[in-house]
Amino acid sequence: MKKSYLVIVVLLILPVAVYAVDFSFGFQAGLRTVNDPNIKDVYKNGLCYFPYAAVNLFKGFTIGAGYEFGYSRDGKIGIYKEATTLKVTGIEAFVGYQYSLPMVTPYVFVGFGSFSYTQTVDSPAAQNVDKTQSTFFVAGGIKVYPMKNLYISAEVKYVPLKVTPYEEEVDLGGLRFMGGLGFTFGY
Length: 187
Hints:
By secondary structure, the protein is mainly beta. It has one domain (23-186): Porin. 13% of the residues lie in helices and 64% in strands. It has helices at residues 2-19, 37-43; strands at 22-32, 46-58, 61-77, 82-98, 104-121, 129-144, 150-159, 162-163, 170-171, 174-186. Strands 1-2-3-4-5-6-7-10 form an 8-stranded antiparallel beta barrel. It has a two-stranded antiparallel ribbon with strand order 8-9. Mean pLDDT is 89; it is low at 9-18.
């Protein structure tokens, strides 16, 4: 009998709780930098993309998740200038705070990401790398609302990503300078 009361209470409270929730969906694109100078010499900085979904639970407190992809760079490596490719992708979860003002919403996020990195070298002597590394990150940005539910965003994110593909540690982390569009709706 107690379970029935609990279910009834949850069903009565749920519509009120959902009414206070805002959902956001967006897509960002921008420049992804690489910290390690040796890696940057071979692969350079590149583009990345980030679709995401977020829930503004109450008073600006936000949780969300997204997927970073698109950084796939070719280069020449070693004394024989062998062809090589580096690809980095990641799944990210974040929490943060947004402060809504008329037409503008600045925000800060902290999060945790699991990043996969793949390096191939066109050489019989080289061993290809396909590994995953997890790390925390921070981001800050602004959303501008030209229309009620549509926003344009600009964001800077820093992801420290030190990995050990072979014997030496390298830093695949860096800054992301992102811009994008999104849509917010609430209940």
